[in-house]
Amino acid sequence: MTAKVHIQPALLLVSILCFLSVSGGKSYAQNYIVCGKIHCFKNLALENIQITSKKTKQVTSSNADGTFSITCHKNDKLILLGQGFERITQKVTEGESPTIKLIFKGGSYALKKAIASEHVSKNELIFAVNNYSYYNNHTQLNLLEHNFSHKYHIKRKQVFTHNFTRHNIIYPDYYSNLNYKNY
């Protein structure tokens, strides 16, 4: 009878050790799945965006309609990376279905990278860039000022008109009061 008493605690200890070795010593009760959507501009879905859970280290990618699902841990953050787009870190909570907007970096290099990485089709991205004011409620003058503000000091005093053709993107004529001075 004494041998039986010693076997039960040993069996319990072995069972606990097996469970810990299988689970890696971590409690998975705090893990949950986050399902979300990634887009740029107003509603342009982004595909093949890399999403990484900072705590669980799981990595996934968005599909053709921009949706994704990933296992996260309590108080986790998602890191979103896409060629031609700014890196985003987004805090997530259980039960949340985030819609995350990535910011297009702009310029020919970012355009080429976004298209080559198949985040979005060339036609869709060019349309979105050409219709920036529609997607972001900015005038095309605001876009022009933003793109050149790091190089020029812009004052709205003189009339400036030009038809921009750059990287197969055609910008319409700008009729704005602009005066720019190189720094």
UniProtKB/TrEMBL annotation:
This is Carboxypeptidase-like regulatory domain-containing protein.
